[in-house]
Amino acid sequence: MAATFPTMEPIILEARRRLTQGAWDYLVGGTESETTLRQNRAGWDRLAFKPRVLVNVSKVDATTTLLGHRLRIPVILAPVGGLAGMTSRGALAAVEAAMEFGTVPVVSSAAGHELEAVAEVAPDWPGLYQLYIRGDRDWEHEMIERIRAARYSALTITVDTAVGSLRERPMISIGAATPMALARAGQAPPPRYGAMVTWESIDRYREDARMPLLVKGIQTAEDAALAVEHGASVVWVSNHGGRQLDHARGSADALPEIVAAVAGRAEIVVDGGIHRGTDVLKALALGANAVAIGRLQGWGLAAGGKDGLVRVLEILEEEILSAMALLGITAIGELGPQYVCPTIPVTPAHEMSSWPNIPGGRIL
Ligand SMILES: Cc1cc2nc3c(=O)[nH]c(=O)nc-3n(C[C@H](O)[C@H](O)[C@H](O)COP(=O)(O)O)c2cc1C
Question: Are 235 and 176 in contact (CB under 8 A)?
Fold first, then answer.
């Protein structure tokens, strides 16, 4: 079945065919004007390659590691909530796909499954857990104990969601409630625990969890330095795929100053608008250790469940191996800033602009 998808375009078109309007809008959309969403794409498009030739590229190896875990390609699965709306087994299918392909899944605390049930899918796995803070200190401690007991290997704290944001596509198409409307109706849990998370909280989670900590949602050199000072093993450069603050920089634009500030003291993951193998290689050339994918996961799962997501990862691998050979490199460690330079994008950026063969361009 998965082999019937030769490229990413038919996967996206099949996902659109299968998803309800509300599920599609939830997956694809960003905040308000969707400027951050487009900046993510534009940032990668503003980089061109400087390939080297006449290098023996008869053997090319795209494997790498993150936190000591082997990755078949430098791509991990970002935490994505609501996957049950994309495919019946939701996050369970995402973990299965990661295991089958050979990468690391980061399980969202909005996955819609108990964290123990997801961990049971792959007992010897290198799964990471992403926690949203939704309770007091006792709640935090209890969650961290559960994460440890379920043998997750690292804890991700997402720090760009102090409050909810206005994601207008599902508000317009299916009347989805805004965070403010929920709060007015008394349906948002008071007090707003997420809004009270600070660097002191990060220290507490790190000490409590006694496992590597990833701080996800860093957008500046200043915060990257603080994350390292507060013991982060991974600084995760992200604007939540353009789903939180509107009019932020694209992740590619934030990445270089963060790489400089971290100065090798932590590993770096970046996400946002990573659609192609070439995007992965640009991110690594700028200094990231790995990238994460969000919407690509949703499209793969919606189009074909676990097999659809495995196929997404295979297509990325095919693109990465091809581009590495054409760049004149044989191993991921050879990438560096000398392989990229600024350019002027040739295509207006939008959420589908990486795929010129989608009929009509954008899909609503
Ligand atoms: C449908 C959807 C749900 C998401 N849910 C979460 C979540 O539960 N926790 C989290 O930290 N990030 C969440 N994110 C953000 C992703 O982890 C990631 O940062 C983002 O999707 C990367 O951008 P991309 O979709 O362009 O690849 C979500 C993103 C999407 C698209």
Answer: no
Q: 69, 141, 230, 240: which is the annotated catalytic residue?
A: 240
Residues in the chain: 364
Beta bridge partners of 154: 128
Tens of pLDDT, residues 264-301: 999 999 999 999 999 999 999 999 999 999 999 999 99
How many domains would you assign to the chain?
1
Q: Whose CA is nearest to atom 10 of ligand 1?
A: 79
Q: How far apart are CA 34 and CA 296, in angstroms?
A: 18
CATH number at residue 199: 3.20.20.70
Give a yes or no: residue 363 inside a domain: no
Is 230 one of the annotated active-site residues of the chain?
A: no
Backbone angles phi, psi at 74, to 5 degrees: -80, 50
188 — pLDDT class (breaks 50, 70, 90): low
pLDDT at 190 over 60: no
Residue 356 lies in a domain: no
Per-residue model confidence (pLDDT) at position 106: 98
Q: What is the pTM of this model?
A: 0.97
Instruction: Please identify which residue in the block is written with the tokens 């609503």.
Output: 364
The residue whose C-alpha atom lies closest to atom 21 belonging to ligand 1 is 294
Given ligand 1 and candidates 31, 34, 80, 218, which is best to mutate, with the most ligand atoms within 8 Å of its CB? Answer: 80
Atom 8, ligand 1: residue with shortest CA distance: 81
